[in-house]
Every structure is written in structure tokens, then in C-alpha cells.
Design goal:
Order of helices and strands: HHHHHHHHHHHH
Number of helices: 12
Structural class: mainly alpha
Distance between the termini: 17 Å
Strand content: under 5%
Radius of gyration: 23 Å
Number of domains: 2
Number of strands: 0
């Protein structure tokens, strides 16, 4: 059956794809706008004469060109799904691209968290023990005590390294993050009860990795149906009814939740996530790890990865419905 005709299934398929791609464009443009002071969609429209928000300002020609590209990214996000739909057949809708996108986001975040955690904990340790000046010199040691410096020159390069590793390596390595958490907890127990030694950064490291493990694993667990279900009705449904419940669950609950998290956290430069990330927010413990602002970013990773995975889940359930309908028609004939 061709996908060139309008149907509810095609519309839901389009909605899933457009939602995921628009979410990715929204997150990417958020950082381009607020980190590099670019106009973004609303700023570009305001300069073009269409005032939607108070984002109007004076921008250079280069900034306006970037603003145009930012605006086009949203147009691409809503038009590309039409291209994908035109090449699909009922019951054989492709959702692997959405799966791979979620996998890449999670994998990049995992490697970034692992590298940042180990490095920042090491810096905090040698700083507490007053060994940092001997290793890097007095001036650099002083700079590494400033959250913004450590964030820009240590954390961000390591985050990019995590992205590069994710591009090269396929698969999810949550088992290693879980093992690192166990080792970190074990180190706290040994140093506290045997050597009577404990520092703030040790607890910070465990919380940093724990938060990452639970938030990053949510999308992975969803696609493998590993979340705990507490129900008295769903388990008894047939495949067709289960698919309908899953589809409407994604539309009414799953995807809206992700968009609420993203819009509430990233709407402007004073929104919670942007405020923490742009100001390199840290805890009040001066000798702890400087990663509190990154933990705000965990919720962004959670929301965007779940948005892709919910979209993939919806498309997969559409296949179940259409295949069941095709089998019913075949049996009747």
C-alpha cells in the first residue's frame, strides 16, 4: 500500500518524525543562540519584521546568516518527514533512524560523563591535597579552581571527545558506568572506614554517575521493554489493543512530557537548564567537583533521547496495527 495517500497512520507517523527532528533542532539552536549570542528563530523573524517575542536586537551580517540557517533547520525538521513517508509502505515503516539517533545521543553522553567524572575527580583530589601547583604551576592551579575555566578548558573538550568516541564506537556501555559507580562507592567505604579519609568530591562523583546512569538508561530500557509495568488490564490485551494503548500513550503522555521538560528548561537564558549551564553553576563546597551544571544537562539528554525513542516506539506500534489489519483482510478473503 502506497504511503502517498492521507491516513491517520501516515499523520501519526509524520507527527512522530517531525516531533523528534524538531526537538533535536530546538536543543541544538538553543546552545547556538545563547552560547554564541546568535538570533535564533525568533530573533531572525523579529529582524525580518515578524515580532513574536522580545528577541529583537542588532546583529551582524554573519549572525543573521546563522540565524537564517537556524530557522531553516526547523523547516527541514518538518519537511524531511514528508520525504521519508513518501518512501514507506504500510506495515513496513522505518524507525531504525530514530533508534540510532537515540543510541548516539545516549552513547555520547555516557562517554562524556565518564571522561568528565574521572578527570574532574582527579583534579579535585590533587587540588585538595595541595599537589596541583606542583603539577601544573601556580597560575594554572589557580585558574582550575574557577568553575568557568574548568568548564571551558577541561569539561567541554572532554564532552567533544565523548561525542567523537560515540561516532566511532557503536553500542551502549551502561555496564561500565554501573561498574564505575560500584568502584566509586567501594572507594568511599574503604577510605572512610579503613583510612578515615573522605572528601566532598567522592560523594559528588557517585551522585554524578548515578544520575547519569538512571537518566541515560531510560530510553534504552524503553526500546527493550525493560521498564517495570504495574497494570491489571494491559497484560491481558491482544497485540492490536496493546499497540493502540501504546500509540495514544506516546501522543498524550510520553512526547508532551519530553517537550515540557525541553521548553520549560530551555525557553530563554533565564530558564533553569540554561541558567545553570551558561553560568557553570557548582555546589557551595569549594573543593568538591565542578559538575553540578552538567547534571542540569542530564535532563536535556533524558528528554531528547526519550523523545526520539517515544517516536520510534510509536512508529513500531503503527507497524503492528497495519500488519494485524493486513492479516485480518487476508484471512477474510
Amino acid at each position: 500500500m502506497s504511503q502517498n495517500t492521507f491516513s491517520l497512520e501516515n499523520f501519526l507517523n509524520y507527527l512522530a518524525l517531525a516531533s523528534a527532528f524538531s526537538g533535536a533542532a530546538y536543543v541544538a539552536n538553543n546552545f547556538i543562540t545563547f552560547v554564541f549570542d546568535m538570533p535564533g528563530l525568533f530573533g531572525f523573524l523579529a529582524v525580518s519584521g515578524l515580532q513574536i517575542t522580545n528577541n529583537a536586537g542588532e546583529y551582524s551580517g554573519f549572525a543573521l546568516m546563522i540565524g537564517a540557517l537556524q530557522s531553516l533547520s526547523y523547516l527541514f525538521a518538518v519537511l524531511w518527514p514528508l520525504r521519508i513517508l513518501s518512501r514507506q509502505q504500510a506495515g513496513q515503516r522505518q524507525f531504525q533512524l530514530l533508534d540510532r539517533s537515540a543510541e548516539f545521543i545516549i552513547s555520547a553522553a555516557f562517554w562524556a560523563v565518564m571522561l568528565v567524572g574521572i578527570t574532574d575527580a582527579a583534579i579535585s583530589f590533587v587540588r585538595i591535597e595541595n599537589m596541583l601547583p606542583a603539577i601544573v604551576g601556580d597560575e594554572l592551579a589557580l585558574e582550575l579552581g574557577k568553575p568557568a575555566f574548568r568548564g571551558v578548558y577541561v569539561h567541554i573538550p572532554l564532552i567533544f571527545c565523548g561525542v567523537l568516541i560515540a561516532l566511532i564506537r557503536r553500542g551502549i556501555d551502561f555496564i561500565w558506568l554501573a561498574a564505575l559507580i560500584v568502584f566509586a562507592e567501594l572507594a568511599i567505604v574503604i577510605t572512610r572506614f579503613i583510612f578515615s579519609y573522605e572528601q566532598a568530591f567522592m560523594g559528588d562523583l557517585v551522585r554524578f554517575w548515578y544520575a547519569a546512569l538512571f537518566l541515560f538508561a531510560s530510553a534504552y530500557t524503553l526500546i527493550h521493554d525493560g521498564h517495570v509495568r504495574v497494570d491489571v488490564l494491559y497484560a491481558g490485551f491482544n497485540d492490536k489493543l496493546k499497540a493502540k494503548v501504546n500509540i495514544w500513550g506516546v501522543i498524550l503522555l510520553g512526547s508532551p512530557l519530553c517537550w515540557i521538560v525541553l521548553t520549560r528548561g530551555l525557553w530563554n537564558d533565564t530558564s533553569p537548564f540554561n541558567l545553570a549551564l551558561l553560568n557553570f553553576e557548582v555546589t557551595q563546597q569549594g573543593f568538591g567537583m565542578y559538575v553540578k551544571y552538567i547534571m542540569s544537562g542530564f535532563l536535556i539528554v533524558f528528554a531528547i533521547s526519550m523523545l526520539f525513542q517515544f517516536s520510534s516506539f510509536l512508529v513500531a506500534q503503527l507497524n503492528v496495527l497495519e500488519q494485524d489489519s493486513a492479516e485480518s483482510e487476508t484471512s477474510k478473503s
